[in-house]
Amino acid sequence: MDLYLWVKALHIIAVISWMAGMLYLPRLFVYHASLLPGPETRAQSETFKVMERRLLKAIMNPALIATWIFGLILAWQSGYYAAGWLQAKFLLVLAMTGIHGWLGRMVKDFAADRNTRGHKFYRVLNEGPTLLMVVVVILVVVKPGT
Question: Domain extents for the chain?
Fold first, then answer.
């Protein structure tokens, strides 16, 4: 069995899991921020808090770590680490990691009832990871400059 192919498969699985969370968490924020404050929506708010925390802790964080580990192994094993397209991908993945951290902060804000942003902000925020993902996939598939 070719170890490289196994690492590649695990990397793809991790990326898919991470991106699922990166796209779903802001959507949860849209719904959560749409709730009007008050006792009649308290149970819904608490449900969103649980969903947001579990998505971040049980899916997104492990997938982020696995994506980085397997991605770095692939870069080393493939020899592409010096290629311009991979360096550009690396910068975009760093940006995605920063957004991940920012989303984690928002989970804490919602958990403490400190959210100050409306649902429209989170609708727009959802586009960032999507755009980064599109560019990363193009870089990986097309490998410009090689």
Answer: 3-142
CA distance 105 to 99: 10
Residue-wise pLDDT for 15-25, tens only, equals 999 999 999 99
* Distance, CA of 65 to CA of 62 (rounded, Å): 5
96, two tokens = 């995605």
DSSP one-letter string for 96-146:
HHHHHHHHHHHHHHHHTT-----HHHHHHHTHHHHHHHHHHHHHHHH-TT-
Which whole-number Å values give the CA distances from 19 to 13, 49, 68, 142, in the listed order? 10, 20, 13, 20
Residue with tokens 């925020």: 125
Report whether pLDDT(37) > 90: no
Q: Judge if pTM exceeds 0.70.
A: yes
CB atoms within 10 A of CB 142: 10
CB 119 within 8 A of CB 26: no
User: What is the model's pLDDT at position 144?
Assistant: 94
